[in-house]
Amino acid sequence: MILVVNPIYAQETKNPSLTLHTEKIPFSEFNKISRDSQPVTFEKVHAINWQVTIENELLYANPNGNAVLRLYDTDIQDKFIEIGMGSPSDYKFWVAAQLPDTGYVVIHNMLERGWSPNARITVSYTDTTGLTVNNGIRIVVSNIDVGIFAIEGYSVHGMESSSDPPAINSGTLSVEFLSGDPAQNIFHFFPFYVTAAIGAIVGILYLTKKRS
Description:
alpha+beta, Jelly Rolls, 6-stranded antiparallel sheet, 45% strand, globular
């Protein structure tokens, strides 16, 4: 009964541990320098385990323009993770972090063919393994320790100087935020429940047989 009924019930129950939402950031937000960008704060913090999926559909107007996404930590001010995507035809790509102990550090930097417009970039984090980044082609950052990091919000920019021409002239950057704590999901413990149930049944059968 446990094995048959419980999976049906699982399909009808919403997973309470997951938080998911998508931001579509218009091109105009990238035509500014970092100092002028205004962070967007989430209603709910993305913590414990999270993944950010980036789909870049921006049309660059300046060969020196960039699309830069910064993810901000909820506990430490000015602590962030930065993902940078340069214009065609170089498609430069970098991953950097602003950390309390080390300041601004470039973790990965590829000047050519660093990302592909036909692939999605994923930035993932767990509180046990750290930060991993896939540029849509391969993993370029693996299990880097950035401390405890919960995403409170983000900002974007694309110009290095206010006197530069616009970086982007059309399109959007789609960013999907997914997070959750597996320990809060009742189905996370389902294998343990099944194991306990089977153990109990085996124990009862053993005692019954022994008495007979």
